[in-house]
């Protein structure tokens, strides 16, 4: 027993500049004549598009929205197409897309060079126009990153090994386009100049006395958060001061 209605051509997502005109297409087959109705959704509000009852939906891009098409037959059977995204780029540089653009990927946002502390999040962004909408693949030092296939590359806790040269490839059925390559530096925290100066003033004039340097680390890269390093540093510093030590306390 075959389905009453079979969609033979699904609409496809696109990524286009504001004001660009194109057509979403949906095709289906059924046992009776079929009726089409398009819907759009923006900010979680879904509405029927008045008069959009053809297989093709002409659109002049104004804002990013989702679209789907409902197909029903004379027996009250109904199916919906896939939801597709029409992503609209409001600010596109002059000369983009090229005048004879056929929908091949065009990069409109390149990632930027960054310096990130170890353990802090790393986020890189890119964006490309394309019809159909491009898929994305990130690379580091020329090596494909299996789990980074979105416009945004996100690493929750950066490691030194995440340093390197990053770029992204945007591709669709018309071809591919690469972003600029950017260098990403992951390293340890550096002392702000004022804190560095305060530490020098505390430690070096007292170099002939008894000095205790206490470091309370709560956030370890490969270890669960400890229960009370801050409290421990505070209590230990009181004890050492009673024993005649000059105490310098550093946290995280």
From TrEMBL:
GO terms for biological process: proteolysis. Residues 208-252 form the Caspase family p20 domain. It comes from the Eukaryota. Residues 3-81, 105-185 form the Ig-like domain. GO terms for molecular function: cysteine-type endopeptidase activity. Pfam families: Ig_3 (PF13927), Peptidase_C14 (PF00656). Keywords: Disulfide bond, Immunoglobulin domain. SUPFAM superfamilies: Caspase-like (SSF52129), Immunoglobulin (SSF48726). PANTHER family: MUCOSA ASSOCIATED LYMPHOID TISSUE LYMPHOMA TRANSLOCATION PROTEIN 1/PARACASPASE, MUCOSA-ASSOCIATED LYMPHOID TISSUE LYMPHOMA TRANSLOCATION PROTEIN 1-LIKE. This is MALT1 protein. The lineage of its organism: Eukaryota, Metazoa, Chordata, Craniata, Vertebrata.
